Amino acid sequence: MKEGVTLPTVGFIGLGIMGGAMAGRLIAAGYSLHLYNRSREKAAPLLASGAKWHDTPGSVAAASDVIATIVGTPDDVRALYLGSDGLIEHAKPGTVLIDMTTSSPALAREIAVKGAARGVEVLDAPVSGGDVGARDGRLSIMVGGGAETLTRVEPILRHLGANIVLQGGPGAGQHTKLCNQIVIASTLLGVCEGLAYAARAGLDPQTVLNSIGGGAAGSFQLNNLGPRIVRGDYAPGFMIEHFIKDMRIAAEETAQMGREFAGLELVRSMFRRLAEAGHARSGTHALSRMYDTEPLE
Predict the structure, then answer these.
(1) Dihedral angle at the C-alpha atoms of 236, 237, 241, 242, nearest 10 degrees?
(2) DSSP state for residue 169 in the 8-state scheme
(3) What is the domain count for the chain?
(4) Average pLDDT over residues 176-196
(5) Residue 292's pLDDT band (boundaries 50, 70, 90)?
(6) Residue 201: inside a domain, yes or no?
């Protein structure tokens, strides 16, 4: 923080795997942080570092100049923003609200319209990069909304992401994130199938990764999740149950376009089987378990 510069007061709502790390980076950057989360215990490390707790989203809104949110589902977003104790109702005129949840483009547009009616600026700004990107501040942030609004809050976002791109008006950030999830779905399927092939061919999977990760097959999914698959480490950087939600939204949007994407639908059906088998809270790379020699338990 530059001497003599007054930083905006920031509210942060949603302290899951990614949100907790993102909030921690803002505290480290010197921002006064106001927190709300459904379970207070997740806020404990941040409170110990100087963040302030609030019992309701509305209380966070009343105390903050800028509020970032990253929660679970579109229903959660609707309640958080449009509920009677929500952010739109209690935010001060001139406040900027940034929803970083992967949610519905139509809902993002609705929130932006209702925010504007109360003098509140809204960005939909979902992120990609998983737990590693959140910890390292190297998320990709896909923004829908006004260019001037983004300029106001970009110094805050720079502590969270290395790639911040305005995609268009309200809802455009969400549409871009759905493109991201469609690409990830089929890419992750290829990673799992390639490593399954390596194992069945009698190759050492890690040695294979050392070769193909530097070639045309290289990707975030291969180079970051491939080693976890080889180790049998399915701890979540991003949970299967959340990816199922994202793929559902993507499928709903493609249906409205009159299209069905075969790769998306295949991976979606495989993840639903994994969730039904008890793996909903494993990392997305647990898709590799579909290729185990033993059937899913």
Answers:
(1) 170
(2) S
(3) 2
(4) 97
(5) confident
(6) yes
Q: How many residues does the chain have?
A: 297
Clarify whether residues 80 and 137 are in a common domain. yes
Q: Which CATH number characterizes residue 206's domain? A: 1.10.1040.10
- Count CB atoms within 10 A of the CB of residue 147: 9
In a shared domain, residues 137 and 14: yes
Does residue 42 have an active-site annotation?
A: no
Looking at the predicted structure, is the pLDDT value of residue 2 above 70?
no
225/206 Cα distance (integer angstroms): 12
Burial label, 257 (beta-carbon count in 10 A; 0-12, 13-18, 19+): exposed
53 and 147 share a domain? yes
3-state secondary structure of 12: strand
Annotated catalytic residue: which of 2, 42, 177, 245?
Answer: 177
- Dist. CA 275–CA 282, nearest whole Å: 9
Residue 19 near residue 12, CB atoms below 8 Å: yes
Task: Please give the residue range of the domain that contains residue 266.
Answer: 176-291
